[in-house]
Amino acid sequence: MFDVVQYLQSHNIKKIRVNVDKIQACCPFHDDKNPSLSINTSKLLWYCFGCGEGGHLSSFIARLDNIPLKLAKEKLGFPINTGCLKGSRQDLSVNLMYEIFQKGERRFVPKFLVDKGITEDDMERFNIRVMLDSAKIFLENKRYINLFGWVLFGFYDWQNKFVGFSARYVSSKNKIFWQPSIIARKFLWGEWLLEDKDKVVLVEGIFDAIFLHKNKIPSLALSGTNLNDTKINRLMERGIKNIFIFLDPDAEIKAKVMSNRLNLLGIKSSIIKANSDPDELKPDQINNLREIYENGLKKDLTRL
Ligand SMILES: [Zn+2]
Fold first, then answer.
1. Å from CA of 185 to ligand 1 middle
2. What contacts 242, CB < 8 A, 6 or more positions away?
3. Which label site among 108, 193, 218, 296 has the fewest CB atoms less than 10 Å from its CB?
4. Distance from the CA of 65 to the center of ligand 1, in angstroms?
């Protein structure tokens, strides 16, 4: 069940008063000192006595979260079953994933992506799609996954060929569910962006890699902290010679193990450390990192 009070609280809406199925609160759409917003939680209607706006609660959510009405409706009544997707991600073939991916919208940037600094141009450049239409994937036993409302991150290989996607969903309580597909264990995200470079900064998350690319630092995302044999082989086949390992601050030991392993295999590597995740670097740290990248490997470990 969609919890309206919790939703209002999580959006910092002031002076929430609850009386059975009626809620009064300050309206987020105008400068409201006395609670003029009224919500009927059994009929799912809202009205503001201050600005005169109102309608179905989905229009309220759509406006407040800056999301399409359809997605707001889904949030209200039909939460997407993430557990279902989890158990069946292996079932998706590349062809099916491609078919789904092609249906994704690239001109709409959902709020959580806007918050991450993603623009409409980035959606295209980094192969991000939003499923704004029902996208049912039928599995065995008449079960299905509906990817409606999910954000898909396309994986393309070195030759710029589509190999699959990872998907992320923002639930009605604004918690983000991350659902890495099996593809994320075989490929590095961002391979197609590397062009002819033979050195790269390896990071954990797709947003880290996007952030570094936007700052002109070639980067690949591991989708976690696991650099397995399959991924190492991909890097070797591609002729990557220098790797800068830049994991989140809590993964210090993992970075060391990774670095030792790469060095043993003949791939030169060094560790980059910062007191924040790569996608939260300050401008001077970014300049620092770009310089380190351009000068090539000099030290085993560098603090930004
Ligand atoms: Zn109002």
1. 48
2. 198, 199, 200, 267, 268, 269, 270, 296, 297
3. 296
4. 16
For the chain, the C-alpha Rg in angstroms (whole number) is 22
7 Cα: distance to centroid of ligand 1 (angstroms): 17
* Cβ-proximal residues to 16 (8 Å cutoff; 6+ apart), any chain: 5, 8, 9, 23, 24, 25, 35
Inter-axis angle of helices 69-77 and 57-65, nearest 10: 120
For residues 35 and 206, give the distance between their C-alpha atoms in angstroms, rounded to a whole number.
Answer: 41
pLDDT, residue 183, reads 83
Q: What is the pTM of this model?
A: 0.71
Distance CA 214, CA 289 (A): 13
Q: Which whole number is the average pLDDT over 180-191?
A: 86
Give the span between the Cα atoms of 15 and 33, in whole angstroms: 9
β-pair partners for 270: 244
Question: Do residues 169 and 177 touch, judged by C-beta distance below 8 A?
Answer: yes
Degrees, nearest 5: CA angle 217-119-197: 20
Question: Residue 89 above 50 pLDDT?
Answer: no
Instruction: Using the mean position of ligand 1's atoms as its centre, give its distance from the Cα of residue 80 in Å.
Output: 30
The tens digit of pLDDT for each residue in 27-74 reads: 999 999 989 999 998 888 999 989 888 888 989 998 998 887 777 877
Ligand 1 centroid from CA 30, angstroms: 5
CA dist 211 → 160, 177, 217, 236, 252 (Å): 20, 20, 9, 25, 21
Strands 219-221 and 301-303: unpaired
Distance 25 CA to ligand 1 centre (A): 10
Rounded to the nearest integer, the mean pLDDT of the chain is 86
Domains of the chain: 4-77 (3.90.580.10), 89-185 (3.90.980.10), 191-303 (3.40.1360.10)
Whether the predicted pLDDT of 262 surpasses 90: yes
Residues 213 and 189 sit within 8 Å (Cβ to Cβ): no
